[in-house]
TrEMBL record:
Entry's Gene Ontology cellular component terms: plasma membrane
InterPro entries recorded: 2pore_dom_K_chnl (IPR003280), K_chnl_dom (IPR013099)
Gene Ontology terms, MF aspect: outward rectifier potassium channel activity; potassium ion leak channel activity
Stretches assigned to the Potassium channel domain: 99-176, 210-256
One of the GO biological process terms: stabilization of membrane potential
Family: Belongs to the two pore domain potassium channel (TC 1.A.1.8) family.
Protein name: Potassium channel subfamily K member 10-like isoform X1
Membrane-crossing segments per the record: 91-112, 152-170, 198-221, 233-259, 266-290
Bias (Low complexity): 27-41
UniProt entry keywords in alphabetical sequence: Ion channel, Ion transport, Membrane, Transmembrane, Transmembrane helix, Transport
Subcellular location: Membrane
Classification via Pfam families: Ion_trans_2
Topology relative to the membrane: Multi-pass membrane protein
Length: 315
């Protein structure tokens, strides 16, 4: 029998480098390599290789099973970040398009109606406020088109901007409903009754909206508008945000009619339009919450289940 070779001894054979040109020729098997295969050292190396192969075949599925949830969590987080960026960009574009439509519509409406002596839409900001009332379907009636061109423009403008506003309010309402759903999961997570949770969330959202969008603006309108009582301001805020818009009370009426034209009056008109748009997000959020509760759409309820699954995978 051959003597076993030292374990640390390196074989003196050199591996020839592959030539870049010409087909490679099979290397002849030498007698020494054949002897290595039958030597104890050769059998020991083959045994070690087979042991490593068996160990690798057993460990690799276990490692994959351990790493799979983490990989799933990372990929899910990456998809969520990309989706959030896309939704934020979409919402920013919608809001920018909405305000751009106000300014462009005001310029066009002023060019059509502003040159008439008996027209109330002589100022650019008067026309701007008119476009806001058309888009939000409030329609106070304090500024109206008087020419045929102005009426045709109003028809076309309403057909374009009203759907744009509906889409924008739906996206904003969805985002606010998701935020409310996260707060619900943290604050009311221990409440198991789904109907009780929905009642509490809607009650808090409704009362908060009454304070933020009706009571506080009503007090502000009472202070800014002459001869208005608090009931008048509260009534005007409710009629505006419900898009009823009777037109019996209109904030900034003296400014819109040109009786008080100044920089502050223009700022007041823009502030009124901002209040109207922000206030409409409140009923939109309530509608989304009601739709999630009644129809089980992909809202707060499924968002909580998805979040719970993600937390379970992470654990």
């Amino acid at each position: 029998m051959f003597e076993p070779l030292p374990s640390l001894q390196l074989w003196p054979y050199k591996i020839p480098r592959s030539r870049p040109q010409g087909p490679s020729k099979p290397r002849p098997v030498s007698l020494e390599s054949s002897l290595v295969s039958v030597s104890p050292r050769g059998s020991e190396s083959r045994g070690a290789d087979s042991t490593l192969t068996r160990l690798d075949s057993r460990l690799w599925p276990s490692l994959k099973a351990v790493a799979a949830p983490q990989q799933l969590l990372l990929s899910e987080n990456g998809r969520q970040k990309g989706t959030k960026m896309n939704t934020h960009l979409k919402l920013a574009l919608l809001v920018a398009s909405l305000f751009l439509s106000f300014f462009v519509g005001a310029a066009i409406f002023q060019s059509i109606e502003g040159n008439l002596e008996y027209s109330r839409s002589s100022s650019f900001f008067d026309c701007y406020y008119y476009c806001v009332t058309v888009t939000t379907t409030v329609g106070y009636g304090h500024v109206t088109p008087t020419t045929t061109g102005g009426k045709f423009f109003t028809l076309f403008y309403a057909l374009v901007t009203i759907p744009l506003l509906v889409i924008t309010l739906a996206d904003i309402g969805r985002k606010l409903a998701n935020l409310i759903g996260l707060a619900e999961a943290k604050v009311l997570g221990r409440v198991k009754n789904r109907h009780l949770r929905f009642t509490m969330i809607v009650t808090v959202t409704l009362l908060s909206g009454v304070v933020v969008f009706l009571l506080i603006p009503g007090a502000i309108f009472t202070a800014l508008e002459e001869y208005w009582t608090f009931m008048d301001g509260f009534y005007y805020a409710f009629v505006t945000l419900s898009t009823v818009g009777f037109g019996d009370l209109v904030a900034g009426m003296t400014m819109v009619l040109g009786l008080n034209e100044s920089a502050s009056s223009n700022v007041y008109i823009v502030a009124l339009s901002m209040y109207t748009l922000l206030g409409l997000t409140w009923p939109a959020t309530l509608w989304v919450l009601a739709a999630d509760y009644l129809y089980g759409s992909k809202g707060t309820e499924q968002g909580q289940e998805k979040e719970q699954k993600t937390e379970d995978v992470a654990m």
